[in-house]
Specification:
CATH class of one domain: Alpha Beta
CATH architecture of one domain: 2-Layer Sandwich
Number of helices: 15
Number of strands: 20
Radius of gyration: 22 Å
């Protein structure tokens, strides 16, 4: 690891004293909405509605379609920032990389910044997102004050928590573009310091790690120090790390994981020493902390050789990005290269296992026991989350604030993320390991994100993701079925 002097990468500059910036963007946005409505109405009657997007973080690969697609490129970019009210108006196709670049100079960041640079604001809201501030700030959609949405019926509506479209506001998360597309979002921002101090705690078993995580998240502190961010990595059944991070105005050094060093490999090296002593930890600029996972797509870049000590110095920094690796995976899926290579080398065929699941912290150790016994692929990412949004008055006991992803209020969950290939055994059912994960998560009362392949039966799917509320929303906002329904898009992969 090569230390850097403080301030050698982007860090927040001085705060803007008052008032919104970039306000002229609103007029351009209004004009873009009118053009989009014209383009929507020009689509052939009954034709499916799709977006023309340059990037995607979904792992449901479909055949390329020749059907016309709506050009939504005008909805990329930050429309305005109000550093006093800590609010930003952004286009729905704005990436978090763009938003972070615009907010850090004001000493601000989005309340939750998903791990990958090219995740869009609209994508994180309609498809969910998570990161290490989620134990205190919930999920990205909980920081949204209002959304401007192009619905399946071809109307543009503004939805808030308490207006005439409050049902769409609360039902939009986890709808994956099957109710409409976010064109503009007003989101809350949080203040930041220039640097982040990281402390890595090692645990020898999952139960102890889950107990510690529950206590740390409840108190937002550990051993007298505030905890602003919390996540962790599982390297094996007896090697788990929780990473606790806090803002700081000063750093004796900052580490650089965009060059020859790899962030996740630094965790054991910088962990507190055995015996209860407190080590020095690690320091990153706030910019580098927010994108610490993107550079190597967590650890998935090793599949492309970029962690090899001979290859890494030759791989340009500009190409150490999750979207580059994702395009390589898409090429592999299209060409079947990996499967054919395994076949000719006489190696076992492999099943892609790319999933994020949420399980209550009290059952996290059970999930890990199952995972090590039946899956065995490591590392895994751990990220705690708790809904920020309180229950609304009038909700029945069996209703949820965000109905299409029905997490319980006041319950701490742990997101487990695992991404890679698992050897298959002849005679196993198709997608055996993915199905076992789905079955176990359901047994434990958890939920699975839908950005990747899913294999639920239709009855099981709608039971898990609140089919009754979804159908009501579909009939209201897409009565002619111009958009795919959630099951067709996320399971049948249409």
């Amino acid at each position: 690891m090569t230390p850097k002097q403080p301030g050698t990468t982007s860090s927040p500059g001085p705060r803007s004293p008052r008032g919104p910036s970039s306000g002229s963007g609103h007029a351009g946005h209004v004009a873009a909405v009118q053009r989009l409505l014209r383009d929507y109405r020009a689509l052939p009657e009954g034709a499916p509605v799709r977006l023309a997007k340059p990037t995607s973080n979904l792992f449901r690969f479909r055949e390329r379609s020749s059907a016309p697609a709506l050009d939504v490129s005008a909805f990329s970019g930050v429309i305005s920032i109000d550093p006093v009210e800590r609010l930003a108006d952004v286009g729905g196709m704005t990436t978090y990389e763009e938003l972070v670049a615009a907010t850090l100079p004001h000493g601000l960041m989005p309340t939750v910044v998903p791990q990958l640079r090219t995740i869009t604001l609209g994508g994180a809201v309609t498809g969910l997102g998570i990161e290490s501030s989620s134990f205190r700030n919930g999920l990205p959609h909980e920081a949204v004050q209002e959304m401007e949405i192009l619905t399946g019926s071809g109307e543009v509506v503004t939805a808030t928590r308490d207006n005439a479209h409050a049902d769409l506001f609360h039902g939009f998360p986890n709808s994956y573009g099957t109710l409409g597309y976010a064109l503009r979002l007003r989101v809350e921002l949080d203040p930041v310091s220039p640097y982040v101090h990281l402390r890595h705690l090692r645990f020898r078993d999952a139960a102890t790690a889950m107990d510690a995580l529950a206590l740390i998240c409840a108190e937002a502190s550990h051993e007298g120090q505030p905890v602003d961010f919390a996540d962790g990595v599982v390297f094996g059944p007896d090697e788990l790390y929780l990473t606790l991070a806090r803002f700081t105005d000063h750093a004796p050094w900052t580490s650089d994981y965009t060059g020859n060093d790899v962030y996740y490999r630094s965790i054991p090296r910088y962990a507190d020493p055995v015996g209860g002593a407190v080590g020095p930890g690690d320091y990153l600029t706030v910019h580098d902390y927010l994108w610490r996972w993107d550079t190597d797509w967590f650890w998935c870049s090793r599949a492309f050789g970029t962690q090899n000590r001979f290859v890494r110095p030759l791989w340009p920094r500009s190409l150490k990005r999750s979207d580059v690796y994702r395009r390589l995976v898409a090429w592999d899926r299209r060409t079947d290269f990996s499967r054919l290579l395994n076949h000719y080398r006489g190696r076992p065929q492999q099943e892609p296992l790319i999933q994020d699941v949420e399980v209550g912290v009290e059952r996290g150790a059970e999930f890990l026991d199952f995972y090590h016994a039946e899956i065995g692929m490591t590392p895994l990412w751990m990220c705690p989350l708790r809904l920020r949004e309180p229950r609304r008055a009038g909700l029945a006991a069996d209703q949820h604030v965000w109905p299409l992803y029905p997490l319980e209020n006041d319950r701490l969950y742990v997101n487990f993320g695992f991404w890679g290939l698992v050897d298959t055994v002849p005679g196993q059912r198709r997608a055996h390991h993915n199905r076992r994960v789905e079955e176990e998560v359901t047994r434990l009362g958890g939920h699975k994100s839908l950005y990747s392949d899913s294999f639920y039966s239709e009855d099981d799917f709608w039971a898990l993701y609140n089919g009754a509320d979804y159908q009501d929303l579909k009939e209201t906002y897409d009565p002619r079925g111009r958009l795919l329904d959630l099951y067709a898009k996320c399971v049948r992969n249409r």
